[in-house]
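Methods — Computational structure assignment.
A single polypeptide chain was analysed. Its primary sequence is given first, followed by the predicted tertiary structure written as structure tokens.
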Amino acid sequence: MFKIGDFSKLSRVSVKTLHYYDAVGLLKPLQVDPFTGYRFYSFEQLPRLNRILALKDLGFSLEQIGQILDDDLPPEQLRGMLRLRQAELSEQVVHAQERLRRIETRLQQIEKEGQMSDVEVMIKQVESIKIAAAREIVPKKEQMRERCIALNDDVCDLLAKTGIQSNGMGLALYHDSTPQGIDVEMAMVLQTDSPDQASVGRAAIRQLPAVTVASALYQGSYDAFDAVTQVYVALGQWIESNGYRVTGPSRELYLQTPGKDNPNGVMEIQFPVEKD
């Protein structure tokens, strides 16, 4: 038998790790001296330790390794665990490749422009939300402010007449433009317990689906159309450069509405996207 220090040198596994494997029941010493507490291992325990290390290298948790080693799993169940681990690793590879592509895109941007973009783009999942919304096609860009205020008034009218509560966040959705003008929808996000259906005039309740979005923040005056447009352009360039395509109307979430004391607001601009 080997003392734990000698077994550590033989197996090239640290004493601390052997102590931990003992504590979690994964590899118990063959014998423990009742007086000194010294742990002793045998040469015959090396195959089990090597199996532990091999399974750990495949990414299995210690709990899963214990199950594999001690529960005498049938081959089909073991194959199932390996296939699941294979799928997990494949997904990690895909995410790593996407991250690598984003890094390459940023490097190209720095080499081209000499600096990083002021617009930081993120890919994230957003949950389905219930909204009260009103929509119309605005013929001219110069009319957008006036017509968006009118649409928002219609939404507020619905909430006032039905007693339905919003969570205080407003948003706009920009659908595909038509020859007739800009297809815009103004909305308020509703509480989760709101009814599924209600309408007053042209305002109505509907559900926005859960989607993957490319998003960026804008901070400043909502009337600074050129500055807002720059964020849209940067988002569009990022989406194209990173191999995504837009799958739905863009969204503007108004996180902080400008007020008398603070003329600047904060909005999050989102594009629903999918990989090409």
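Note: The mean pLDDT is 88.
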